Amino acid sequence: MEIKLWINDKLITDNVEPDMPMLEFLRDKGCYSVKRGCETSNCGLCTVWLEGKPILSCTMPLMRANGKHITTLEGLQNEAMEFGAFLADEGADQCGFCNPGFIMNVLAMERELESPTEEDIKEYLTGNLCRCTGYMGQLRAVKKYIEHKRGVKFDG
Amino acid sequence: MLRCNNYVFAKSLEEAYELNQKRNNAVVGGNGWLRLRKRQWDTVIDISELGLDNIEENDDVFKIGAMVTLSDLEHDPGIEKYTKGAVRESLMHIVGTQFRNTVTVGGSIFGRFGFSDVLSMFIVLDSYAELYKSGIVPMHEFAKMPYDNDILTGIVVKKTPLKIAYSSFRNQSTDFPVVTCAIAIGSDKITTAIGARPSKADIRTAHIDELKDKEGYAAKIAKSFDYASNLRASGEYREHIAEVLIKRTLEKIEVSYGN
User: Fold this and answer.
1) Is the ipTM value over 0.90, yes or no?
2) Domains and CATH numbers, chain A
3) Among A6, A14, B34, B226, which one is most buried in terms of CB atoms within 10 A?
4) For B95-128, b where at least 16 C-beta lie within 10 A, e where not — what string?
5) B95 contacts on A by Cβ (under 8 Å)
6) Interface A:B, Cβ pairs < 8 A
7) Where are the domains of chain B?
8) Is-above-0.90 flag for pTM?
């Protein structure tokens, strides 16, 4: 099937199999940050943005992105590095495999929620699984990142 | 993974319906469930270009299109106000933000899944499944209908004055629920749904006088359902949790609506 879409603001046209998963398509186009961590739409590792909204690229039918914009971590390098420094400072990640999906969702949350509380953060990010840690480092990093972006002390 | 020979964006409901009459074809909602099926479809029918992704509200009803995502439903201010957050509570524990941005109300309701928080919630509301051929069917009847080849186009929720609350119990957050409980109290009757038993949600309706003895009501209603065991919990455990959830859900109603 003919498909035309933007990946990180670059126009792509292609001819794909009707059941090509979005995740595989994005990897074929060189977006190796997009990974499959489970087979059941549960882990959040394949998170990308479709028209700015975080979605699961393992699940969303590829053809629904026809004519639309997909953003992956490759398209957000500056912001990813900025937040990544907070993760590193808190010693949050261990193996790091879950980071790309997690960072995509943190950056989406930062755009969507004006002044999130700790509960809001947990609720928004709960669909990003990490099998090394207990999420405490990540939570500290997210709070400090929000403080940094908002220029105010986190009070949630 | 979703496997198919053809992927078709239906241009009309009639086209979607015609295509859906073949056994090897299927309608895809958000693909949360279809992708887990181990079969090759001939044609997968996409109804996302038929304008079914809106929530319309007037003085009497909400009309929720089948392709509305769980996130859009969760954050709809009208639904939030009418259900005092009960619908949001029923959705917020489902997997995660990205999943709920992807999957649809229609897929959740049409599937009539045992684990469905969504069905458990809607079944106690004055709600109806809107089917392309069969018309408007009360939700508790739709829940029991055999799977057929009709197209679910949306959900209608009448704004009947109800006191509504929702609770679920999970072994771990984001997992499927072990038991779900939704309660709606009207002017003279109380409707309680228990789902994930692990079979799908069903309701019990009683006169509100029964609430004079809340403990007794919770015990009686919990006992009236059938429960079974699976990987997540035993049937006996579920029955016990159901009774607790009924009590807690009644308490939630007291807190948000007063006595």
Assistant:
1) yes
2) 2-73 (3.10.20.30), 75-150 (1.10.150.120)
3) B34
4) bbbbbbbbbbbbbbbbbbbbbbbbbbbbbbbbbb
5) 41-42, 127
6) 82
7) 3-44, 55-158, 163-257
8) yes
